[in-house]
Hints:
The complex is a heterodimer of chains A (328) and B (244). Chain A is an alpha/beta fold. Chain A has helices at 55-62, 84-89, 106-116, 121-135, 150-162, 180-193, 206-212, 230-234, 252-260, 291-301, 315-325, and strands at 17-26, 29-39, 44-48, 70-75, 78-79, 91-94, 168-172, 198-203, 215-220, 223-228, 243-248, 265-272, 277-284, 307-310.
Amino acid sequence: xxGAQSNxxxxxxxxxxxxxxxxxxxxxxxAVEDVSFTVQRGExxxxxxxxxxxxxxxxxxxxxxxxxxxxxxxxxxxDVETQAIEAKRRIGYLPEGAPAYPDMTAAAxxxxxxxxxxxxxxERAKRxxxxxxxxxxxxxxxxxxxxxxxxxxxxxxxxxxxxxxPEVLILDExxxxxxxxxxxxxxxxxxxxxxxxxxxxxxxxxxxxDAICTRAVVIARGRVLADGTPESLEKRSRWHYAVSLVAxxxxxxxxxxxxxxxxxxxxxxxxxGEEGLAMLTAFPKNGRPMLAELGAIARGTGxxxxxxxxxxxxxxxxxxxxxxxxxN
Amino acid sequence: xxxxxxxxxxxLGGYFATPVAYVFLVIxxxxxxxxxxxxxxxxxxxxxxxxxxFSFHPWLYLFLIPAISMRLWSEERRAGTIELFLTxxxxxxxxxxxxxxxxWAFVGIALALTFPIWITVNLLGDPDNGIIVAGYVGSLMxxxxxxxxGSCVSAMTKSQVIAFVVAAAACFAFTVSGTPLVLSFFxxxxxxxxxxxxxxxxxxxxxxxxxxxxxxxxxxxxxVSLVAxxxxxxxxxxxxxxxx
Lengths: 328, 244
């Protein structure tokens, strides 16, 4: 039962999480249809998708709570079904909603998890203290968990998942219900642990993906629809490399005509603002940068340009496109 | 097996973390005494033994044990903690046994707290303490049977009410299967072997045998195999739920 200590025997080269054709049907409901991906050490994978896309179900299969209908999941080389206990030893899991025994105090709960994770005496106390420190639970340790606020409950769940320094962390909506400061802290915590672990977080907050994830997997209706770095997803956005100019409203149409002549420009959008100004956004046709050239053209027209900037790709728009477009 | 110990500790502590434990203990002791002294005519019988005390245990357990067992798995499912519990590195077998032993230990505590009645009977007369010990052993074994049934039922549902009602009904069936009520129903048409088999399933038959002071291997085997069967079914149900 010496769980976490013997973690290092597996080389870092192989993928820490390998999921192959995972499928889960509940009777007629096809919660997960076909999900495959791998996660390497050092990666923070953002698992994105609308509600009901199959994120939580997939996580439940990786952690061994649900048995897949078909497909395999391996954690550090251990099959989660046939070598369940070996796999579970290497996983820290924060289930959706961060469930914890409501009648126990946070301290007793963490002590129990430490005991099950195979730590004794001083070692257990040390591990619990470290997890408490990292999640800043010092003040509420002796309170029953059901008297805690949502944010503290979530952090108790996180502490429980981190306690044994697992190689693989599966966090189902780790920042859900936290206030902005707590979100910031939890994200910092996840980033600080990322280097020597493989971390999967599910979320529907897209800014979180930008903030902590090195990779994003988008799923909807039980299938993987996109898999790449957040930047590569942003590149799919029509806003990627778009150029916005702010100019007096009366001159905007003249500006549009001048910029429209550039071969890379695919379309425009105009938004009228205050004080007689309007913003004109030129969208790229071929997804290439055009800030410098459009800037030169704009200057050539002699129109007063108050502001010019290159837009970033918008993840939320890409997310919407990906998850709603392909109905079939 | 260390995991069983940790689960056992947490579960047993869980009973005492809420008023459940204290309410149960008080009710159990009040009812056990009431039955003994009023319904059992403890004094009027004029005998220095605890027959009046032990003979009501099956009926007491019938509704008190399902009240203990109903939360074992249903509560975990309702609160969602089962997701945490079953993703810890423990086997389902350890989980089932740890929970069962904790509930059993709790019943043991309740039973141990009836010691004043034992002292009373020793002060009033000169009872055969061997028979009394056998009575306690029999009662404890019977409670294990009820608990195993209750735990198994609790694993099937997230509703504690359903777990309670179904467990009580199942326990009732096991309790009365040796009484004329049930046996006469079978006696009319079934062969004698079947009637005997049905009677053999009765908690009462085996418990009464032990209560008389004879701990027969057959009665012990009966309770042990009953507990093993239901705990095995319990584990199978938990495993089955994983498949959705």
